[in-house]
Design goal:
By secondary structure, the protein is α/β, with parallel strands linked by helices. It is about 35% helix and about 15% strand. The protein has a seven-stranded mixed sheet, with helices on both faces. It has a four-stranded antiparallel sheet with strand order 13-14-17-16, with helices on one face. The chain has a two-stranded parallel ribbon with strand order 1-15.
């Protein structure tokens, strides 16, 4: 953004143009209690001085951290080719492809993204795309309510808590019964689930792997859902998915998830990318937009937007969603990443992440004061019981430039001593050793403090 300050004369001309006397008159319709009182303490700086100030602030950011945090956003390696391709001016644009005839390249990339998601999930149709995994899950729930004409939603407590919060927000104001099924030993309590589901249930939402990184038993969940004509919605980790049976094989009706691992950095928590896939029979009820391949009158291949189901494109009462963007650049990034790695590359990333997670879990589980919180199988994320509150472990290791994981106690009552760690192909053996050494020192310090 260029540094273009407005002079008093510039402001006067603008006020004259829009027909107001001064700034106070410009904001006259804003209530007094919402206005900032007095002058803001902003120094008058030249462009050069301002840039220097910003650079000094930027240097305060932590750099060089070794990241073992997950919870939906992961630190994967991004090939340089991803940025080289997505950084081309054809892709880096604020333009949303409404007119298909001038957007063939963008539409083709969207189509390829959808195709990759369908291959990964086993579903017939994918859209492009959702804001993030949480809104994708919420949109899936809303779609299920509309399709089934029922008003009860059943969530597993092991679904990402941020997803559950967004779903609660989406459903607020609706006459919907939202029931959360508790977990037992880190997994969805299937007995409680079966008792909760009834003829009024529109859908069951479950994660695979779940928020603790554990693999859920899904066949009984699908059976329970379909017994009452409810939809089974799966929220999946796309990297772990490269090693597991497809959601379609488990009997899922809708698949959602977070696409950030496909070539996007963790950054400061965004931007993110939600994916959404379903059988063809649900295509006209899906949110967002769907690109398709066709031929023109001359028989040449072309790409079009076949379905756009928000209120801007169709009658408002017929809209299935008000999702306003398809996160086109993020979807493009994901498509490029998946195309570069291919099936073999994705599987390799998943295997490396899993092997490193198993290595770290074995080493940490052997430390005095630590043990794995749950015994169920996991892929690349696992929970550890810590000798002191997990938030204190995180704070202490951050001083050593190690982000050791996510504090489960932030969302789950009684799990203040639960640290959830995630491993990716980027983590080296020496970094794992560094983490283990830091955890060991903390435990020893904790023992000494109690003596």
């Amino acid at each position: 953004m260029p540094y273009i300050p407005n002079t008093d004369d510039d402001r006067r001309k603008m006020f004259d143009k829009i027909g107001v006397k001064n700034f106070d008159e410009l904001i006259d319709n804003i209530p007094e209690n919402l206005r900032v009182k007095g002058q803001l303490d902003i120094p008058a700086l030249s462009e050069m001085e301002l840039l220097d100030e910003i650079e000094q602030l930027a240097r305060l950011n932590r750099t060089g951290q070794v990241c073992f945090a997950g919870g939906g956003v992961y630190d994967h390696f991004i090939p340089a080719a991803v940025g080289a391709i997505t950084g081309r001016p054809e892709f880096v644009t604020a333009y949303t492809p409404y007119q298909a005839e001038v957007s063939q390249g963008t539409l083709q990339v969207i189509y390829e993204f959808q195709s990759h998601i369908c291959r990964l999930t086993g579903m017939e149709v994918a859209n492009a795309s959702m804001y993030d995994g949480a809104t994708a899950a919420a949109e899936a729930v809303v779609m299920a309510l509309g399709v089934t004409k029922k008003n009860k939603v059943v969530l597993s407590e092991t679904v990402n808590p941020l997803y559950r919060e967004v779903i609660e927000t989406y459903l607020s104001g609706r006459e919907v019964e939202l029931v959360t099924v508790p977990f037992k030993d880190g997994l969805t309590d299937l007995n409680r689930l079966e008792d909760t589901v009834d003829e009024n249930t529109a859908c069951i939402l479950i994660g695979q792997p779940n928020f603790f990184g554990l693999l859920e038993e899904l066949e009984p969940v699908a059976e329970t859902a379909h017994k009452v004509n409810a939809l089974m919605i799966m929220a999946v980790d796309p990297i772990a998915q490269a090693l597991l049976k497809t959601p379609a094989e488990y009997g899922a009706d809708v698949v959602v998830g977070e696409g950030q691992p496909f070539g996007m950095p963790p950054s400061f928590g965004g931007p993110l990318l939600g994916f959404f896939a379903a059988p063809k029979k649900l295509a006209r009820s899906m949110p967002g937009r769907i690109a398709a391949r066709t031929v023109d009158v001359d028989g040449k291949t072309g790409f079009v937007l076949t379905l756009q189901t928000r209120e801007q494109h169709i009658r408002r009462d017929k809209a299935t969603s008000n999702i306003c963007t398809n996160q086109a650049l993020c979807a493009t990034t994901a498509a490029v990443y998946m195309s570069l790695l291919g099936k073999t590359g994705l599987t390799r990333v998943a295997l490396l992440s899993t092997e490193k997670a198993q290595q770290a879990a074995a080493q940490i589980g052997g430390l005095d004061g630590y043990e794995l919180y749950f015994k169920a199988p996991f892929v690349r994320e696992f929970a550890v019981k810590t000798p002191q509150p997990a938030r204190e472990v995180i704070t202490a290791l951050l001083k050593k430039n190690i982000l050791p994981g996510v504090n489960a106690g932030r969302w789950f009552k009684g799990l203040d001593d639960c640290l959830i760690l995630a491993l990716t192909e980027k983590r080296t053996g020496s970094e794992i050793d560094l983490l283990v050494k830091g955890l060991k020192e903390l435990a020893a310090r904790d023992v000494m403090s109690r003596m």
